[in-house]
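User: Let's play a game. I give you a shape written as tokens, and you guess the letters that built it. Ready? Here's round one.
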């Protein structure tokens, strides 16, 4: 990733911290930073600073033209460089506005399909700066859809994804003149280098076994391999699909959902003490300790909270599967919380739409947002340090091989 040296003058800082409008100060700061980035990119492409004499120069500056960019802190004006005898190119606008473009497009589609309110029409016309038609929407979709679709269908075979976390959220989509509930199935993986990736999103008719099986089959057809652990909630269709599509792979039941299921079945007066005991069980240092705590808890509450103890006993093995992993990997792999934070980001935008005008609109908005998050993950810090896990995996494989040799 390119590194840029950015300067901020004292007047701008004064407006940012002491001005009457905080958003206005942030907008000015953003405008200054992005204009400096554009100028630095022009220098990179021309291989020369302004007025610099060098044999490596690839062209000449020819002024700039204004480009207005609508952001969450207001509209800013960028000075896009002109190149004499060539063309200046930047991903600055497209890369950081995909999700915003998808949101506006969804609103626009609501208007042209006659399913939105007059207020939505006014908002979208203000955002777009002009009135729009079906042809306008179609042209904008042609620019954004191929980018999102290509990312969502990209090959996954370049690396193994040892840990996979899956979850779904329900959306309202208008189809055949009726509003129907559809499940947005989302997968996240942790690769051998320790980085998270959004594996993909698929819109299913429901959260049934058939829909999840189709989703997993699609991921495997794109090259998903090397999975050791799948983390999810206890939805029946999802669990059956995992066991069918990932035979021999360990399933970790989300501990957050598991605890909630137990407490829902616990008398209110006992919920605090049952929670403490189950939490200690899930945080146990090893499986033997967890089983000891399980037996003690069941013995103590099997008459006072029989339904809760039945839920606990039935789900214990799946909820504590993560205890077989080395300690550093347990906290982030014992729940679906990391993926549910993505769902919250989707919900913030989905609430603006409420009812998507069609499936394509839903996939475009969710895909564009997930694509931006995926790019941030790829350029950020590792999610997990995989060195210890890979060593542990190699050791286990060597032990199995030695046993097979002895038997033979």
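Assistant: Ready! My guess for every position:
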């Amino acid at each position: 990733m390119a590194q840029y040296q950015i300067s901020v003058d004292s007047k701008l800082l004064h407006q940012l911290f002491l001005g009457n409008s905080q958003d206005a100060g942030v907008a000015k700061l953003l405008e200054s930073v992005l204009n400096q980035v554009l100028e630095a990119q022009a220098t990179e492409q021309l291989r020369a600073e302004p007025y610099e004499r060098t044999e490596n120069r690839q062209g000449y500056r020819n002024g700039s033209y204004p480009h207005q960019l609508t952001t969450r802190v207001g509209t800013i004006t960028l000075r896009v460089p002109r190149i004499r005898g060539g063309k200046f190119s930047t991903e600055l606008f497209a890369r950081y506005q995909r999700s915003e473009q998808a949101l506006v497009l969804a609103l626009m589609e609501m208007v042209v399909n006659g399913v939105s309110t007059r207020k939505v029409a006014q908002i979208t016309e203000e955002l777009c700066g002009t009135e729009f038609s079906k042809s306008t929407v179609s042209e904008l979709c042609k620019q954004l859809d191929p980018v999102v679709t290509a990312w969502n269908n990209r090959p996954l075979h370049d690396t193994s994804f040892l840990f996979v976390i899956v979850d779904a959220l329900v959306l309202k989509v208008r189809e055949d003149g009726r509003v129907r509930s559809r499940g947005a199935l989302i997968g996240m993986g942790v690769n051998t280098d320790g980085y998270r990736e959004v594996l993909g999103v698929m819109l299913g008719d429901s959260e049934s076994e058939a829909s999840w099986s189709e989703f997993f089959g699609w991921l495997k057809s794109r090259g998903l391999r090397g999975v050791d652990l799948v983390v999810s909630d206890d939805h029946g269709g999802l669990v059956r699909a995992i066991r069918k599509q990932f035979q021999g792979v360990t399933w970790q039941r989300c501990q957050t959902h598991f605890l909630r299921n137990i407490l829902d079945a616990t008398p209110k007066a006992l919920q605090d003490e049952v929670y403490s005991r189950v939490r200690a069980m899930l945080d146990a240092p090893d499986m033997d300790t967890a089983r000891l705590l399980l037996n003690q808890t069941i013995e103590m509450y099997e008459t006072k909270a029989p339904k809760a103890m039945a839920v606990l006993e039935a789900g214990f093995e799946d909820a504590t599967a993560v205890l077989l992993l080395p300690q550093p990997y347990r906290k982030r792999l014992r729940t679906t919380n990391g993926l549910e934070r993505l769902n919250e980001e989707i919900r913030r935008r989905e609430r603006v739409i409420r009812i998507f005008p069609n499936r394509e609109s839903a996939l475009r908005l969710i895909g564009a947002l997930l694509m931006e998050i995926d790019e941030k993950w790829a350029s950020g810090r590792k999610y997990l340090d995989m060195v210890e896990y890979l060593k542990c995996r190699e050791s286990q494989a060597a032990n199995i091989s030695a046993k097979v040799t002895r038997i033979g």
